[in-house]
Amino acid sequence: MHVNLEGIMASTLLGHLGRWLEAVYPPVCALCGDAGMRGLDLCVGCLAELPRLRFPCPCCGRPLPEAAGGRPCGRCLRRPPVYAAVYAPYRYAAPVDRLIAEFKFRGRLANARLLGELLRRAALEDGRVPPPLLIPVPLHPQRLRTRGYNQAVELARPLARTFGAHLDVDCVRRLRATLPQMSLPAARRRANVRGVFAMRAGRRLTGSVAIIDDVMTTGATVEELARVLRRAGASSVEVWSFARAGQARKP
After folding, report:
1. What's the CA gap between 187 and 184, in Å, rounded?
2. Would strands 166-167 and 133-136 be described as parallel, antiparallel, or unpaired?
3. Residue 177: what pLDDT?
4. What is the total count of domains within the chain?
5. DSSP H or E stretch at residue 85
6. pLDDT at residue 50, as a whole number
7. The CATH number of the domain where 149 resides is what?
8. By the 8 A CB rule, do 38 and 106 touch?
9. CA dist., res. 112 & res. 117, Å (int)
10. 198 within domain boundaries
């Protein structure tokens, strides 16, 4: 039996380093400022207040009433999305919206560790395993320079480490800068992102992939990206998002 000694040693060193850093810089709750939990910048009380999404549509991930019984929502029955499924463990509601806004728009990169860890823990708790290839929604270079980081990439890192998935940050490019989707009415969001993504020259895909994003609202962005990935050879596309907005219609 082959034993990966280098991997074991690296994991052990990282574990020691993490414990040392926590001893020197103990976790602090990102919401209330009290002492955080081990390995998490949230206190027990604030963690309990995060709105988990318990009854999503299995296709688009929109919240459904428990009585729907796991069946697809009315939208997906009428017009199935290009992507196969959505995993979004949290609802886009207070205080999740605050954590994402501070991370995405106010330069609070420390929230990257928190949100990535929460997404990783939720996947383990829910028994979800991402596809072997993770593709974060790309930013336009201009926006990436302004923000300094791509929030979707930061969310994907803990998933890649835990599940051994490959994180590809370069196979898709954003062809033009677009208006922020959340600043537009739902009717304009599809037109805003139409034709905005393209595969890098010569890149082809095989097997299933996961699109990684911070929050999914109408789904226009990930549907456009999923269409590009399917044309490039992906057999199926899942969407993994930290939070899901909206409300699904009953079947």
Report:
1. 8
2. parallel
3. 76
4. 1
5. strand 85-87
6. 97
7. 3.40.50.2020
8. no
9. 8
10. yes
Q: What is the pLDDT of residues 183-221, one digit of tens each?
A: 666 667 777 778 889 999 999 999 999 999 999 988 999
Residue 111, domain member (yes or no): yes
- 148 in a structural domain: yes
pLDDT at residue 13 is higher than 90 = no
Answer for the pair 136, 212: CB distance below 8 angstroms, yes or no: yes
Q: pLDDT tens for residues 163-178? A: 999 999 999 999 887 7
Q: Using DSSP bridges, classify how beta strands 133-136 and 208-216 pair: parallel, antiparallel or unpaired.
A: parallel
Average pLDDT over residues 1-24: 45
Q: φ and ψ at 181, to 5 degrees?
A: -60, -40
Which residues pair with residue 198 across a beta bridge? 173
Q: Which amino acid is at 107?
A: G
**How far, in Å, CA of 212 to CA of 222, rounded?**
9
Specify burial of residue 35 (Cβ count, 10 A radius: 0-12, 13-18, 19+).
Answer: exposed
